[in-house]
């Protein structure tokens, strides 16, 4: 039986997102979290590379200026958020962003989902493990993924947001504006010419969105949200006592698609965007 139904495809097309329960088992979620804990234990980030990650426009510009960020396309890199260091400078937690395109073996249903969506030649763009830690997990302001992952034509990028723990209104689940993927992209982060500074800048402006238009989308542990690249979404701070760990990555339909050379994320000869379909 297909993991994704025709009704799910219709909702994704209509709203710009859809929740699918049971992508991973509870054990598979725990195993992914354990593997990430092992990576963090081996983490060695130089002090000058401890880049703060944020979705606010001003801080986005600052992180986009950092070579550590702009060269993360073929590496595992660690990013931090405000409040993660204590008064002695010791690390309390991290917001981990890995731009190294890797999909865990547990996500066996993904090729079938991609085929259900009609994708002919999908590739994996990037992957992230996001720690929304208790009490300090920061806000993610309203945005569209296509601001950072731009294609011509639009509509070729989708995100998969896998809840490794229950994502609730209390611990910072995602909120969406249904149907907002039909309004185009208002803002882009682009690279500046080589040798210039800053390394990136934004074109266009993020409009002001009405809070009343956002709908909370809680997800049970092991569930996934399929996210259209142009749908507007956000998440609130995590002021609860529960963490909200997620594993997320983006895929792109490569057939008849131009990946913008202005995007901050660029493949390399050594590590091109890998195909999703292996057969």
From TrEMBL:
Keywords noted in UniProt: Iron, Metal-binding
Which source organism? Gasterosteus aculeatus aculeatus (three-spined stickleback)
**Cofactor(s) listed in the protein's UniProt record:** Fe cation
Q: Which family does it belong to?
A: Belongs to the PhyH family. PHYHD1 subfamily.
> Highest taxon of the source?
Eukaryota
What SUPFAM superfamilies does the database record attribute to this sequence? Clavaminate synthase-like
Record protein name field: Phytanoyl-CoA dioxygenase domain-containing protein 1
Described purpose of this protein according to its UniProt entry:
2-oxoglutarate(2OG)-dependent dioxygenase that catalyzes the conversion of 2-oxoglutarate to succinate and CO(2) in an iron-dependent manner. However, does not couple 2OG turnover to the hydroxylation of acyl-coenzyme A derivatives, implying that it is not directly involved in phytanoyl coenzyme-A metabolism. Does not show detectable activity towards fatty acid CoA thioesters.
Q: Name one GO molecular function term.
A: metal ion binding
- What Pfam families would the database entry show? PhyH (PF05721)
Organism placement in taxonomy? Eukaryota, Metazoa, Chordata, Craniata, Vertebrata
């Amino acid at each position: 039986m297909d993991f994704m139904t025709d009704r799910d495809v219709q909702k994704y097309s209509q709203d710009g997102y859809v929740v699918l329960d049971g992508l991973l088992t509870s054990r598979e979620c725990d195993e992914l979290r354990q593997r990430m804990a092992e990576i963090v234990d081996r983490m060695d980030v130089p002090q000058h590379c401890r880049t703060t990650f944020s979705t606010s426009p001003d801080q986005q510009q600052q992180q986009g200026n950092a070579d550590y960020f702009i060269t993360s396309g073929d590496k595992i890199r660690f990013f931090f958020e405000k409040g993660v260091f204590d008064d002695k400078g010791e690390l309390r937690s991290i917001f981990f962003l890995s731009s190294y395109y890797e999909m865990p073996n547990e996500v066996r249903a993904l090729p079938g989902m991609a085929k259900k969506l009609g994708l002919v030649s999908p590739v994996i763009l990037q992957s992230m493990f996001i720690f929304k830690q208790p009490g300090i997990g920061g806000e993610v302001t309203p945005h569209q993924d296509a601001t950072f992952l731009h294609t011509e034509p639009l509509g070729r990028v989708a995100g998969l947001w896998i809840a490794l723990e229950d994502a609730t209104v209390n611990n910072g689940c995602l909120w969406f504006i249904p149907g907002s993927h039909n309004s185009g992209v208002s803002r882009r982060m682009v690279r500046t010419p080589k040798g210039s500074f800053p390394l990136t800048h934004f074109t266009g402006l993020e409009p002001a969105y009405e809070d009343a238009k956002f709908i909370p989308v809680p997800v049970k542990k092991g569930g996934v949200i399929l996210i259209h690249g142009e749908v507007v979404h956000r998440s609130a701070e995590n002021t609860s006592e529960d963490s909200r760990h997620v594993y997320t990555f983006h895929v792109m339909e490569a057939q008849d698609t131009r990946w913008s050379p202005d995007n901050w994320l660029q493949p390399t000869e050594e590590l091109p965007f890998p195909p999703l379909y292996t057969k």
